Structures are given as structure tokens and as C-alpha cells.
From TrEMBL:
It comes from the Eukaryota. GO terms for molecular function: cysteine transmembrane transporter activity; glutamate:sodium symporter activity; L-glutamate transmembrane transporter activity; metal ion binding. It comes from Xiphophorus maculatus. This is Amino acid transporter. Its main location: membrane. It is found in: Cell membrane; Membrane. Belongs to the dicarboxylate/amino acid:cation symporter (DAACS) (TC 2.A.23) family. It is a multi-pass membrane protein. InterPro entries: DAACS (IPR050746), Na-dicarboxylate_symporter (IPR001991), Na:dicarbo_symporter_sf (IPR036458). The keyword Membrane applies. Keywords: Amino-acid transport, Cell membrane, Membrane, Metal-binding, Phosphoprotein, Sodium, Symport, Transmembrane, Transmembrane helix, Transport. The keyword Cell membrane applies.
Length: 392
């Protein structure tokens, strides 16, 4: 935010245009926060895969009687209302909360949920194959999309502004990656934070190619377990969740992009409006989809929510496909730093739990659940022996 306000990449420094002020809806921040809470508990788990609830601030005409004495109300004839409905787009926050609840229920069911768990595993494998197909064909679609917008550009001075915008975003991502995250890690752990860059280099390289934190998740888990030495249980619990929740790179990109749209539209914002935009960007990036080329949809959502014109957001598509690779790197880097930090802070508790589990006597039910979690080819004890004495 400080960089984009100092550099002002969207301002035309040669013509000296005057900026105009805009009155943003004061309740826009509250509306987005209420939508976030409402989407945590979706009405339908299936509906959460393709729709989410969104509230819009609209101006509605009022039917004012002729004998109404208020001249101001009679002149305006409108009032502000909140209109909510379901719009296309996955409800990631609701999916995470619902999946967490279903996982707890399946864990409580134990061996009775064996068929359900096998179905979920097969479905997960099929979805991975479909996702790989999408990633292979995605560059072709993005190529034609970028070519279309480049050919439609009539004012090439906008390209200069976009180049300045790219430089501001790169500088902001670099400060966050090489200064903010390592400093937080060093303050709490007193360890060299730059070793993590080398230890997770494979995950960072993969995220730069795929531009998807969700597709990079298997490599991220492998690097954190093998190289960073994060506890396996902690790593496999946190990383799948934070890959969809912790979108720090996208949040940094969105706040710069929204302020850039305000500058290119010659709109002057006050301090309160700027803070509202920053908080809105943070909340909107929470639970965003970890797939490529989703920044433009989030930017339009934020612009609409805070009352800024969204018609200029199409300009960002020219460079967004390129910047998306670097914002994904920051997302994965933030996930790895967070998991390593939590592993360090909870190290004593993890050692105590591991020691007690090795030394204590384990019940027959715990052993059955462990065997149930094995892959099918690794099951060496038949299910009929669940009531007998288990031995290694």
C-alpha cells in the first residue's frame, strides 16, 4: 500500500489531470465480513462447489406519496438496500469447514466408514487427473485471452502504467519474501531463515511453473517433511488448509491492483477509504481458490464491494497471467514459513506426544484404525481379525 501510494503507477504524470473524490459505501467492509461468516456454514455442501453467497449494496427507488412533506426524500426518491443472492464461484471457506466436519464424523465412525473413505480416495485420484489436464491446456487459453486484450488496446500509454505497476508489485513481493517473512521467523526461532529458501526450492520452482498453490501441495508437503524436518502429522494437517486460506501473495497483489485502478480512473481516496480497501483485500483473499488466473475475478469483486469502477479491471489481464506465477511463489513461501514456525513453537508438545504414544499401551481400536489407514496393497491383516489379538 505504501509503495503504490508513493510511486503512483496509475497516475499520468505528464498531463497533470486533476483527481476527483468518490464516496464509497461505508458499510462495504461490514457486508464482506458478514458474507464471509455466512459462507462458513453453506446451505448445501454440493452447492458450495459452484456457488457462494454475495451481498450487494444497491440503490432502490421508493414509492413516495404525493402528500409527503420531506423535500429531500421527495427529490432523491432512492434508498440504500442490501440485496443478497448466490453467484457463480466456489465457496472455499464453506468447503473447508464442511470437509473438516465430515472428516471428524468419519474418524468417529471408525471402520464403519471404510467404504466412504475408499470412495473419497478414488474421487481424489480422478480429480487430480482432471486438474492435470486443465493445467496442460491452460496456457493455450491464456495465450488467446491475452492476445485479444492486447489487440483491443487503443491507448498504448496504458502499457507504460502497467509496466510501472509490475515493478511496484515485484518490489512489494520481494520486501515481503526476503524481509518480512524471514524477520518474523528469526524473531521467534533465532535460526537462519534463509536456509528454508534452499530447503523448499523444489516447491518454489514447481509453484513458479504451475502458478497454483493447490497443484504444488504434494511437493510442498514433501519438502517440509524431508528437508525442513517438520513433524509429519503437523505438516499434513496444516498445509492442505493453509494452501487455500493463506493467500498472502494474492492479498499483496490485490491491494496494489485496486489502488492502481483508482489512480488510473482519476479517483482520489482518503485515509479511511484506503484502509477499507486494504482490509477488504485481506478478507477477500481468505479462502480464495488456489488455481491460476483467479486474480481478476477477485479484483472485480473487491472493486464492486468498495464502490470503485470495475470496467478498467480488464487492463490487468494483460500482465496478470505473468504476475500470477510470482504471487503463487509468495503464497507457498508463506505456507512453509508458517508451518516451520508452528513446528518450532510446538516442538516440546510434539516430542511429549510422540514419546507417550511409543511408550504407552495402545488399544486394539487404535491399531485397527492405523491398519485401516494403510493403502490396499499394504493391508496384511484381514478385517475378520478385528476381534482377535493383533500382533506385529
Amino acid at each position: 500500500m505504501s509503495l503504490v501510494l508513493l510511486v503512483k503507477p496509475g497516475m499520468d504524470h505528464t498531463t497533470g489531470k486533476t483527481t476527483v473524490n468518490i464516496n464509497m459505501p461505508s458499510s462495504s467492509m461490514h457486508v464482506i465480513f458478514m458474507d464471509l461468516i455466512r459462507n462458513v456454514v453453506p446451505e448445501s455442501f454440493v452447492q458450495a462447489f459452484y456457488e457462494h453467497y454475495k451481498t450487494e449494496i444497491v440503490q432502490v427507488k421508493m414509492n413516495i406519496p404525493r402528500h409527503y412533506l420531506d423535500p429531500v426524500m421527495a427529490q432523491n426518491g432512492t434508498e440504500t438496500r442490501l440485496m443478497g443472492n448466490y453467484v457463480p464461484g466456489a465457496n472455499m471457506v464453506g468447503l473447508i469447514a464442511s470437509s473438516f466436519t465430515i472428516g471428524i464424523m468419519l474418524n468417529k465412525a471408525g471402520l464403519k466408514a471404510k467404504a466412504t473413505v475408499k470412495f473419497i480416495k478414488c474421487l481424489s485420484i480422478a480429480l487430480k487427473i482432471i486438474f492435470n489436464w486443465i493445467l496442460w491446456y491452460l496456457p493455450i487459453g491464456l495465450l488467446f485471452l491475452v492476445v485479444e486484450y492486447v489487440l483491443d488496446i487503443s491507448d498504448w500509454t496504458v502499457i507504460i502504467k502497467l509496466i510501472r505497476l509490475t515493478g511496484v508489485i515485484f518490489l512489494g513481493l520481494a520486501i515481503h519474501s526476503f524481509l518480512v517473512l524471514p524477520l518474523i521467523f528469526f524473531v521467534f526461532t533465532k535460526q537462519n531463515p534463509f536456509l528454508i529458501f534452499f530447503q523448499i526450492s523444489k516447491a518454489l520452482f514447481t509453484s513458479a511453473i504451475l502458478a497454483s498453490s493447490a497443484a504444488t501441495l504434494p511437493v510442498t508437503i514433501q519438502c517440509c517433511e524431508a528437508n525442513v524436518k517438520v513433524n509429519t502429522k503437523l505438516c499434513r494437517l496444516m498445509l492442505p488448509m493453509v494452501s487455500s486460506i493463506n493467500m498472502n501473495g494474492m492479498a499483496l497483489y490485490e491491494v496494489v491492483a485496486v489502488l492502481f485502478i483508482a489512480q488510473i480512473s482519476d479517483i482520489l481516496l482518503d485515509v479511511t477509504q484506503i484502509i477499507t480497501i486494504c482490509l477488504t483485500c485481506c478478507i477477500s483473499s481468505f479462502g480464495a481458490v488456489g488455481v491460476p488466473a483467479t486474480g481478476s475475478a477477485t479484483t472485480i469483486l473487491i472493486l464492486t464491494a468498495v464502490g470503485l469502477p470495475a470496467h478498467n479491471a480488464s487492463l490487468l489481464l494483460v500482465f496478470e497471467w505473468f504476475l500470477d506465477h510470482f504471487t503463487t511463489i509468495v503464497n507457498v513461501l508463506g505456507d512453509c514459513f508458517g508451518v516451520a514456525l508452528i513446528n518450532h513453537l510446538c516442538q516440546d508438545e510434539i516430542v511429549i506426544l510422540d514419546k507417550s504414544s511409543r511408550e504407552g499401551m495402545r488399544s486394539t481400536r487404535e491399531l485397527e484404525l492405523d491398519l485401516f489407514c494403510l493403502e490396499p496393497e499394504e493391508e496384511f491383516i484381514p478385517s475378520s481379525s478385528s476381534g482377535s489379538i493383533l500382533s506385529m
